[in-house]
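Bench log, entry 3. Co-assembly request; chain sequences pasted below exactly as received.
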Amino acid sequence: MNWADTILQGALLGGLYALFAAGLSLVFGIMRLVNLAHGDLIVLAAYLILVLVSTLGLHPFLAVLIAMPVMFAAGWLLQSYVLNRTLGPDILPPLLVTFGLSVVLQNGLLQASSADSRRIPSGVLETASVAIGPLTIGVMPMLTFASAVAVILILNRVLYGTELGRAFRATSDDAVTAGLMGIKPHRTFAVATGIAMAIVAIAAVFLGTRANFDPTIGPARLIYAFEAVIMGGLGSLWGTLAGGVVLGVAQTIGGAINPEWQILAGHVAFVLVLLVRPRGFFPRAVD
Amino acid sequence: MHGRTIPWRVETRTKASTVFAVIAALIVIAGLVAPIYLPRATLQDLFFILTMLVLAQSWNLLAGYAGLVSVGQQAFVGLGAYAMFAGVVLLKLDPLLAMLLGGVAAALLAIPAGFFAFRLQGAYFAIGTWVVAEIVRLVVAQWKTLGGGTGTSLPGTATRAMFGTDLVQRLLGVRPAQAVDVICYWLALLLAVATIFTVYRLLRSRHGLALASVRDNQEAARAIGVDARRLRAMVYLTSAFLTGLVGALIYVQKARISPDAAFSVIDWTAYVIFIVVIGGIGTIEGPIVGVLIFFGLQKLLADFGSIYLLALGLIGIVIMLFAPQGLWGLFASRTGIQLLPVRRLLRGGSLET
Amino acid sequence: MALLATHGLTAFYRDFQALFGVDLTLEAGETIAIVGANGAGKSTLMRSISGVLRNGADQILFEGRPIGAMSAPEVMGLGIAMVPEGRKLFPSLSVEENLLIGRYGRATDGPWSLETIYQLFPVLKERRNTPGTALSGGQQQMVAIGRALMSNPRVLLCDELSLGLAPIIIKDIYAAFPAIRNSGASIAIVEQDIGQAMKVADRLYCMMEGRVTLTGRPAELSRDAIHAAYFGAHA
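Structure output for the full assembly:
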């Protein structure tokens, strides 16, 4: 076994988990809402891209450009008409409503497609790889990781360099005072969920082109995303990437030792990290 | 006050609750003798309803009263069931005894699981419990003597020799397999009654009052000396034990186990959450109403497969959005009726002395 | 017609009534001060006008328009900005970002911009990149005032400016008010410090237990009358 290769593959896999997690992290940071349907929304977006690819004959990377605004709109509507109603001091309503949504999405997809696993065809990219020194790296994993870095760079730029980002952070700090500044919290939340869903579309194209998926795999992606966010430290997007990398490396190492241990090793790493650093790698100063 | 005492008393009983206590006793007696007059299929339905009720009451205790929203109850169902299997298959225990082992194993799991999950706040506690359940599922799937990932069956000889089967066979004149069902049914009834009684007693005790204060305002509760952490830990352990026990019981009756089924988030947590939400979270009556509606829906829609779950999810969302106190809560707030009152009512004690 | 007026304004926190029919006017270019003891309803009045609390539509008029039922962002969009009690800076925003967010709902041209606010409070310019909540209390109050001015408001509501600040710092802050008046804004100040209020205000309102108990020009009001209106019957 080549350890360097295993660790590199794991780190690149972490990029995928960071993509799963970025939207979750953004939404939690702004409105303290944990969307238990996040994983199922990724799967939904993957089906959307699959439909675009197979009916219009588009390349997946073109299809995702259509899927992003569609998912943005879906997120905006979801937040405006459903999730905004659940926000408040009680954590039960948002949890139970998004849990219900998760079940609805899974079974809706089962009904609409089937339980068969599918894959988004991406042509030569599927198998393309480049050799760097002694290591061979797949083009797709590299693109995934690069996309994760790009998404985080852009999100940070929005959060810390634009009026919208200031409004996000102000609303997160204190929604009542934000209202006095002319910020409408519910509208801000709708935009944030819209952005999160656009990122979900990006995550979905990599989920769907790299491996098979079926309607039931959403919850597992939610768990990976959640683990990446918590390990990284709430509110830090670079932390989320670091968390994703730790998770990915743990999984590939575990899998290299015994294929049955792959997922388990990831979870165990998560528990260990949390026991040693309860607030993650890069905890936010104000919380 | 010139030495005059104001006549007041704190009541935790209502007229409806006294009437209900009598009716409930009659229902339990009717339930006890049900195997004499009900066909086996109906008994199996009742077994399903009663075990789901126990799961629902345990989850309601966690989420509705302690504010601990767990999405990982399948960890305790699955581990309880697997511990029971281990007891019967490996230790050659009587299934009855092995069931207790299931409950104890679940409670033991709750100690490290709680230690870990309690570090996570609010919403993250939910996913934390889910991660725990996944870990336990993946570990159990490595247990090759119990069938690994594909699972195993309970030896028929073991269940048929279970404590009490002889007696039931002779008493009711039934075949061994049926006798096992009857015993399982009785145990489910016993467990359901015991669970409701336990939750009821807990909530009416001073712990119940403290729990309500923790749920409503953690800071204030701490200020008046309520140890929220300990109280929540106690509730978590109790809920885990009950869930493990019923998980073991369910799998004595099923007699076939696999990690995916025993640790199913849909079967042991999603259904349970919908039962409680539809019936009414934070009440003892809610889960009872919820489980009956759930069973009715399942009988009506079970043939439609995923549409059934789709409908259940939608109903859950709609109720959470528009009637968050659930159907029983709606009924109770319209009529003022409480069958199992756990709130305290102040009577008399007027201040116009 | 008054620029801003309340007519029989009532306000509730659940079952608790906090305001019992308050009548108040603010003319264009005027500065009024509202004084009263703790719990008199001053802050509730500010929260009602600014839209944090919703009231009957006709109970608050802005240029004759009913605005009582509007939300805070809507009220702010009309040009009524508030400096909230306790300053309420956004901890994850820097000083400059706190100022910039003030124009989110109303980016109107006018006398106030980052530049003119840094002229008004030069100390803020030096500390523009530090987190708002890392400043001293007085400096935080300056940021809160600057943040409200950034929208070039027609009405500036100030809730308990001197709360928790040393007298010398209070004086510094009030030194900025002539400039704010000259910029054309009408001002309503809630104060517990009667002396300070009488110095800046054209007219004074005294409140007690959710009602206006006295109103008039500072020069025309006797100490005893104010004392009675502030504390109730001669104590």
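The first strand of chain A starts at residue 129 and ends at 132. The interface with chain B takes residues 28, 32-34, 36, 82, 85-86, 91-97, 99-104, 106-108, 110-111, 219-220, 222-223, 226-227, 230, 260, 263-264, 267-268, 270-271, 274-275, 278 of chain A (CB under 8 Å).
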